[in-house]
Amino acid sequence: MSPAFALLGRDLALARRNAGDTLAAVGFFLVAVGLFPFGVGPGPELLARIAAGVVWVAALLAALLPLERLIGADYEDGTLDQALLSGLDPAGVAAAKAAAHWLTTGVPLLIASPLAALMLNLPLEAVPVLIAALALGSLVLSLLGTAGAALTLGARRGGVLLPLLVLPLAIPALIFGVAAVDAAAQGLAVRPHLAMLGAVAAAALPLAPLAAGAALRAAVE
Amino acid sequence: MLQADDLAAERGGRTIFAGVSFTLSPGMALTLTGPNGAGKTTLIRLLAGLGRIGGGRLLWEGEDALADRAAHARRLSLIGHQDAVKPAFTVAESLRHEARIAGVDPAHAEAAMVAMGIAHLAEAPVRILSAGQRRRVALARLPLARRRLWLLDEPTVALDHAGVAALGAAMAAHRAAGGIIVASSHLPLPLPNAAQLRFTIRPRETEAAA
């Protein structure tokens, strides 16, 4: 087995053992979405109009929660040194980390997203598009977030720095993702928006692990 | 064969050491001694390809060792200050994951645990282990991964006599098989006929200039 899959396998086994981290992110997501009807009022039409944006923003924030520990824990206990000595390029180590984050945080959020959408009265026909868009969007955030987590390794208050670094970069994904869901709710074409979102993911897929890999190498020096 | 040729390291603009040269043939061992902060850990990380070389060259079989860092990583095992074991796993799970990451058969984990005297702890979670037992789990990586070059930073920290003896036996077997060991320690290591490199604290250059 390639070291990348072995590293990913260990992270997934660890996430299964510490399932509370995943549940905390999903719980945060549902609670954050659930606050909006209290904040803006329970009018079904208003909620339906803001549903896509609220679900997206809440999902982005929830996905940020485990990021600080994603690489930080490995950095502190020496596991990162060992991973970088596995014979894998640092970018490969970063890619395995991003994949682990997406599988343990992004996918559970995807599974919870229809429930969040229903809480906000999003039209049912828009839910499949919401899931498709969030699948790409959470992948983008996992990739950007891994790069951000690698860059803030060893920094004081890295946990505060990380969202400041990552969230602005996630804005393009947010714009196209919400536009796709809104288009679906209004019965318009969703394909152009999803294509743009796919393009963002396609750009982040090679670039973010490369940047994260360089940051990992610098962090252990 | 591992060769250091006039190696130097600096951190934050300060030279930590310079002019470190040695040649280690198969079966040889080198111990690093010296006060805290003299650069032993820095040298070990440098040899692992994790640090930045400030000057000089590191050669493996006569060729630049760090030209291909991935290939260099695959011929060494590093035991650092930290044990790098996850508290949530059991000892056996930890070593099976280590084996997969190192690209060896996870079935070898059993023998590695026996070598370090932790076979009876196989199903114990790492969380409940003592510091010395965790150190043994970390050291079990050495016979598990079977790399040519062992880089050990204070390997006997927290180990009891039996642990030191187990490490000594593993190191002897490794050298007999043509392996190379570089180890730092404040305590005598069970490494017969090892060469010694003594580090001293360098005077601050600013002070020397003044």
Could you explain how this protein is built, in words?
Chain A is 85% helix and 0% strand. Chain A has 221 residues and is an all-alpha fold. Chain A has one domain (3-220). In chain A, helix 3 (44-64) runs antiparallel to helix 6 (90-119). The longest helix of chain A is centred in the middle third of the chain and has 30 residues, at 90-119. Chain A starts with a helix and ends with a helix. Residues 206-210 of chain B have low confidence and may be disordered. Chain B has two domains: 1-75 and 147-210, Rossmann fold (3-Layer(aba) Sandwich); 82-146. Chain B starts with a strand and ends with a helix. Chain B is built from eight helices and nine strands. In chain B, the strands form two sheets. Chain B has a five-stranded parallel beta sheet with strand order 6-7-8-3-9, with helices on both faces. The interface between A and B is medium-sized, with 25 and 29 residues.
Report the oligomer. heterodimer
Q: What's the overall geometry of chain B?
A: globular
Number of helices of chain A: 10
Evaluate the radius of gyration of chain A. Answer: 18 Å
Summarize the structure.
The complex is a heterodimer of chains A (221) and B (210). Chain A is built from 10 helices and no strands.
What are the SSEs and their pairings?
The complex is a heterodimer of chains A (221) and B (210).
Chain A: H1 3-17, H2 19-40, H3 44-64, H4 67-77, H5 79-84, H6 90-119, H7 127-151, H8 158-169, H9 171-185, H10 191-220
Helix pairs in contact in A: 1-2, 1-6, 2-3, 2-6, 3-6, 3-7, 3-9, 4-7, 6-7, 6-10, 7-8, 7-9, 7-10, 9-10
Chain B: E1 2-11, E2 14-24, E3 29-33, H1 40-48, E4 55-60, E5 63-64, H2 69-73, E6 76-79, H3 91-102, H4 109-115, H5 131-139, H6 141-145, E7 149-153, H7 161-176, E8 180-184, E9 195-198, H8 205-209
Parallel strand pairs in B: 3-8, 3-9, 6-7, 7-8
Antiparallel strand pairs in B: 1-2, 1-4, 4-5
Helix pairs in contact in B: 3-4
